[in-house]
Amino acid sequence: MDALLRTLFQSFAKSQSVGRMARRYGLRFGAGRFVAGETIEGAIDAVRALNATGREATLDHLGEFVSTEAEAELSTRMCLKTLDAIADAGVKANLSLKLTSLGLGISEQICLNNLTTILNRARLHGLFVRIDMEDFAQCEKTISLYKRLREQIDNVGIVIQAYLYRSLDDIEELKSLKPNLRLVKGAYKESPTVAYPAKPDVDENFKRLISTHLKNGGYAAIATHDSQIIDYAQQTIQELAVPPDRYEFQMLYGIREDLQLTLVHEGYRVRVYVPFGSDWFGYFMRRLAERPANVWFVLKNLFK
Ligand code: FAD
Hints:
Layout (H helix, E strand, L loop, with lengths): L1 H13 L1 H8 L16 H13 L3 E6 L7 H21 L3 E5 L10 H18 L3 E3 L4 H15 L5 E6 L5 H8 L5 E5 L14 H18 L2 E5 L3 H13 L7 E6 L4 H9 L4 E7 L4 H10 L3 H9 L2
Parallel strand pairs: 1-2, 1-8, 2-3, 3-4, 4-5, 5-6, 6-7, 7-8
Helix pairs in contact: 1-11, 4-5, 7-8, 8-9
The protein binds flavin-adenine dinucleotide (FAD).
């Protein structure tokens, strides 16, 4: 049953028409637990609340897979506005974005131009930008674009997904760039020809990625709610005597708040991924796919 629901939510996540239909119901049916509202102001308020409890944030203006240049420009403008809002508010946050929202699916050059504009604005404000990793079809393009940029710019990082067979090789190949990598399990529906289908294999690979990247000397953002992986990371950090300015833990807004606060109290740097905006549907469906038990939460909210 769980596997069926997972596949269903993963398919919904990609469906524009289901997304349009669902958005008509607004945030009422549960997305509000995972999304910090539709406006920048609401998102900045959420970041203030996180900062007040010792957590930092990364803001993501939701949006993906745009198909016109005008839409890509609009997403770019929203990223610029978000960076300005972070700087104006003086909150502890940086920016996460998706390359398909900047036009990666239209042309790599359009995407690169938009991303460069964003990175320049971020640099003006002294802010960091993380490129999220999307489905496998974007992986090679995203990594090669990152490599080109990283040679000239240092306020940019990328994400590596533990479910992909290629990820350990990617980490080794990126080593010389001393990259800032967010390590995650991976949230998209992928073919077993490119990704481990079984969770224990993903978890083992996640551990390999953590130790390899920490040994290689880059910055590690360990992004998971899985206590076993977090324990493993803490042990490895201790064994390798990795200094605190070379790693942080990251979790998603609305998930395992108890664990986020425990890590803060233990003295770890914790960053929460705070998504906001009207295009919340695909993100929301991926959160349901990760944990089909969340569907009860949605059903309860449908009738509120
Ligand atoms: P799991 O084994 O899935 O979960 C461990 C425990 O966490 C569960 O038992 C449960 O208690 C809790 N939990 C996990 N998910 C949920 C949920 N949805 N609702 C309620 N409880 C839950 N993926 C990408 O593909 N690309 C990215 O760029 C990307 N960026 C991310 C950024 C951050 C900061 C984080 C935390 C995740 C990101 N992800 C990204 C998602 C990631 O790939 C996983 O899908 C997600 O984190 C769930 O896996 P997990 O590591 O928490 O482990």
